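Figure 2 data, in text form.
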Amino acid sequence: MAERVSGLRASRHQKLERLVERGVDPYPARVRRTHTNAQARALLLEQERVEAAAPPPAPVTVAGRVVALRGMGRSSFADLRDGTDKLQVQFRRDLLGEEYASLKDLDVGDFLEVHGSMIRTRTGEVTVEARKFTLLSKSLRPLPEKWHGLRDTEQRYRRRYLDLIANHDEVMPTFLKRSRVIEGIRAFMSGRGFVEVDTPVLVPVAGGALASPFITHHHALDQDLYMRIATELYLKRLIVGGFDKVYEIGRIFRNEGVDQDHNPEFTMMESYEAYADYTNVMSMVEEMVSTVAQAVLGSAVVRHGEQDVDLSPPWRRIPFLEAVEEHAGIDLYPYVLGGKGADELAAEARAKGFDVADGPVHRVYDKLLSLSVEPRLIAPTFIVDYPMIMSPLAKQKPGSPHLVERFEAFAVGMEVANAYTELNDPVEQRRRFQAQEEVRRRYGDEEMDRTDEDFLLALEYGMPPTGGLGIGIDRLVMLLTGQTSIRDVMLFPQMRSRE
């Protein structure tokens, strides 16, 4: 196989040399395209719709990549694909004259400009009948064959450009839908009066989430900085400053493992609304997801395996402690209230068959949720009212001193959103940060939240009651496109180095 590929590459280089010898520029700088493929097709269809006596449409000039070549003696055909459609091209010897012979130097993968008339062939195929063609870019490597050349999953992720070429009809729609999902979120947020903003990616303190950060160094300042693990603390500074509704869609970086739901960099939408609480945010999430689904898919119902999942409001709401007791068979109240410790909880969880290691109690809580509850949440569901130790930035639930007003939204067995009624008491926030720092020292847990003194200073100037939200764009796209791996909705997922 390697020898065959090497031979094909050599043949393409020979064709390139022949083109140059004939004075052909194989990489010209100008293109004279008048129509996209879709526009050219529509032009013929419109002409066919009107009276037969109407004059034929004017010639068109289209451009795109050759994805198929078929020689038929005095006539040859190519399939030309651009970003809008695939269009057949017919090359006739009697129309092209001497130029017809230069077809022998074309290959699948080359980019062409074709000038000609729109016709239907005898088989009914919409076609450009070429009167002239120009090479726009010579491809020096053979493209993978659709059914044999690029089915290796790792290769598809490493060389996404080949995946998009070889598996175009399967892969491209997902990423077009991803773009429409982001457009839909922006339209939804704008319609509710939110202002889109930008906050720093390089930060002096990596706060706002329980995650391990990436570290870098700024030479001019001689200062270590971190890639942001959340946008939360900067967006809340803007609420302090007088914005009532802000949001940001941006890349987040967390130094964590890679699996079907996680990538070290991912896209998050975070929003903060003054004078709102987590119940208001729950209603907004229900409406946003169903609205975006309707805009992108034409329906609020998505397919998950053999099931149809309806994303229409209202979504089910289950308290955290009840969900764990129902699905794991463990009563967490004695642990949340402080009567029992983390080691006892881990032992009880292992006795019930859950793979849980000793560690800080919030880790055990989270593990029980992910192992026992999350896989069962196929219909959209809010898990609400979390233990305070799991949520250092969330406001205490009135009447329940050990719980906070937090929810996570789940669907098809994965988390898609996380939200709080935001803690705006600077004294309590400092105490929570200090407790997190103590857990980090005790357990060596680098994912614990860090004390951000400037954020605490901002809170001391006063922040109104606020509802905050983080929604994973990648996972939302997975939900709406039926994908089961985050790598299938990211154009360039992180891969292990081959070296």
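Caption note: The mean pLDDT is 93.
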